[in-house]
Prior knowledge:
By secondary structure, the chain is α/β, with parallel strands linked by helices. Helix content is 57%, strand content 8%. The longest helix is centred in the middle third of the chain and has 38 residues, at 167-204.
Amino acid sequence: MLPRAILAPGPVSTTLDVAPVHNVLAGISGLSVTDKNPGISPWLHEAAVALGQERLRRNSMFVYGLGLDALANAVPFASDAEFPAYLAALSAADAPALRDRLLADALAMPRLALLRDIDDVAMPTAATALRDPAAWIAASVARAGEARVNADERAALAELHTLLVDPAALQAALVEHFGHLWRAQLAAEWARVAPLIASAVDALRTVDTHGKTAFEAIRVVTGRDLGGLFRPDRIARFRRLRLIPSLHTGPYTVWSTVGDELLLVFGARVPAARRAAMPDLERAELLHRVRAVSDE
Length: 296
């Protein structure tokens, strides 16, 4: 028998985007890991303290119990939609249909499947997950890795299950939580950083990504080599790549998937030729580099 051929990754269609909803969701995910990722922006550290432990616990339950893929795909929205439009769509969605979409992505968790150090785990069907909380928790823990999930996170998975079996309660809890974050912390901060992110997008659009694979495009735009993080065979299935600069992720990257598109949020940087004209973004990039070194 001849060995099965493995196709080399092909070029992807790469776009640079402000992507307000994805940008804000990436910041929300960062709120729950400020203790693990000290290089995240000081604003996120301060916001996490202001929110308090109970709100952060609830945030982790939604962001990491459901996953960014589930939240990004929960409701349809335009690529340039602002976060209030996303909240309105969440509120207006049919509750059972919303729960079913969230659960399907939570079980599939496409973003974790891209990682080299995450093993494939057989997940229960949606019907089994809803009927048997122990099966839901065990499979979720096994996929993340036993050593990575502490007792509090297991308890959060159990609490999340009580919402999954009650679609109206799940919808109300999501709308309340993300609405509170937006009003209490995120709206004013987004108004501050959005113009800078738009400037970063304009500058980075001058970088040539034509004909490049996903890994190559990521490297020339973000300055990061993610070949050691992602599985090449899984990355090769994406035909589109959306790169989203952020002023909150620091030296870290946050990713999610939407169909055949990979979305990567990364610390905003400025091409060398544009740095003199963009001092604010150049300072932000310098801070990202300093934090990255301090985390090593």
